[in-house]
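Supplementary Data S3. Sequence and structure tokens for construct A.
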Amino acid sequence: MNDILIFELQNGVFKQNSNKTITLIKKDEYEDNDLFPIINNKDRNIILIRHKRHIYLIRQLKDGTFNIYTSLDCQTHKSNGTKTNNGQYLVFLDNKYEIYSSYEILNK
């Protein structure tokens, strides 16, 4: 699966909202690993998700839908990382080059 499915609470039951589904880059030749948590920073309106070999920065739009703001190809499906507490930096272990990489997340 290469989609993020959005469920919303309606009358005490979670129901899928297909209008908010986020389609990710399709790379079937790679498997997904659980080395990178899904991180939500409400203050900066950023959701970080790693799926297969990409790290996605996703933002919620004013109409409630979601948009992939940018993505980073890690060149490997075996990377783990996190963001700083204030949400300003993404830090991850680049297993391909065996180094830590950090990126500043700019609000635009």
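Construct B, processed identically:
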Amino acid sequence: MKSLDVIVAALLVIGGLNWGLVGFFGFDLVASIFGPMSFLSRIVYALVGISALYQAAQWKAIQRRWQVATA
């Protein structure tokens, strides 16, 4: 499960950086790599969305797995 946690975290960083680029510069990196709303772009966007849902639903379990102290 820790491997999945790392993959999810990486996808969320990619998604966050992409949204930052969109917000600050109007530049969509995913669309520039894979094409605007291409099949691959949609897969990347979907994976980022699924990662966010996983992170939101599993944050307590992730903390326990990684033994992160809660504040």
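The chain is about 80% helix and 0% strand. The mean pLDDT is 92.
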